[in-house]
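Worked example

This section walks through a single chain of length 483. The input is the sequence exactly as stored; nothing has been trimmed or padded.
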Amino acid sequence: MSRFVDRVVIHVRAGDGGNGCASVHREKFKPLGGPDGGNGGRGGSVVLVVDPQVHTLLDFHFRPHIAATSGKQGQGSNKEGAAGADLEIKVPDGTVVLDEHGRLLADLVGAGARFDAAAGGRGGLGNAALVSRARKAPGFALLGEKGEARDLTLELKTVADVGLVGFPSAGKSSLVSVISAAKPKIADYPFTTLAPNLGVVSAGDQTYTVADVPGLIPGASAGRGLGLDFLRHIERCAVLVHVVDCATMEPGRDPISDIDALEAELAAYTPTLQGDSTLGDLAERPRAVVLNKIDVPDAREMAEFISEEVAARGWPVFSVSTASREGLRPLMFALAEMVAAYRAAQPEPVARRPVIRPIPTRGQTGFTVESDGDGGFIVHGEQPERWINQTNFDNDEAVGYLGDRLARLGVEDALLRQGAKPGCAVTIGEMTFDWEPATLAGDAAEAFGSRRGTDARVDQTDRIGAAERKAARKQRREHTDDS
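Given that input, the structure is written out below as tokens.
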């Protein structure tokens, strides 16, 4: 038995980037061929794509974990690793994407609409790409970055022109079945409709869609009954139609009180798409009232009695019978005119230009240094944390390269200004290490008593200089001549 699912939480994870390769070119009679390690491939991204053939989020209900493939490691002879394939996930038209905090990330409307749910990690550089004037033959490579992982909430909002609202068993499903080719479930008990029904109506040369949602009851906006779960499906409707049961025999109910109760629920409901520039709030949408079941004599008298009172609110009123199909044709053409008027009032659609947002790799110098309260320091920043993740700490040369990068970024000067001493604990990302200044420049030079271009640590050595060796040779010659 098929199920209708319109809200799910998915866990997406992009592919990791491949590691770079540390390799040296080897060829006969060329012992010093130079580094030739290739870069790692980027990880695959997870992309949500609107597919008109998909109508529910049921697949994500059973398989909420989605992961793209990772990139391959680079190889020698300057061979780059294969990139991970992007994983395209098909979603229904009208899907809204929310983050774990409930913030709106994307509103996917229209076939082919796309949203990058998780970005793949960048591949690490091979040692061939790390060659510099000071580092002729790097013996290390950078690790690939981890792919983005996040939890997203998908909500499906039916894309329709007209939304039918009403109490349970008011005849909404019957109305959709007689004015369109839709075949919803119809029965004589409340809450027969458990999923929104969508029908296409043709009135002359105009065509529009009608959505039927499960019945509303007082308190639906606060979570009572099924209304709260399906009120989102009328957020996109241009026209709202109250379907009123004029033949109800329930005590305490009458058509006017039903309309007032439904209006109170619509006003109390807070839609997800706050500030929608094209539709506005539910309370401001055009209204129409359908007085249903006039094939019953008492219901016809009730409809004639309240028609003027409802019309006084400025809403068009239609008395219909889905059983005898009386009054349906004027209703269909009137709704077509209301939808056409709404469409004409909307601004002309402007073709969206593709927006390319390249991933910045340089110039991200923002970082902060704070004390951990125990004599150590914590460095926060996207660039330092990314460098930590790229470093292989089993390779001393790679660790030295990391120290040079942090020093050029200004992390060492910032640590000194905060009062850091050599040997104190410094945490960057998930790595904690004992800090030793890599280069003495700027504030570090003043702290350790040397100027830029010199290093006081060079003098702290027992190595014999050239002048001492020359004096020793001169003494040996004189001693030989005397002998």
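What to look for: The longest strand covers residues 149-156.
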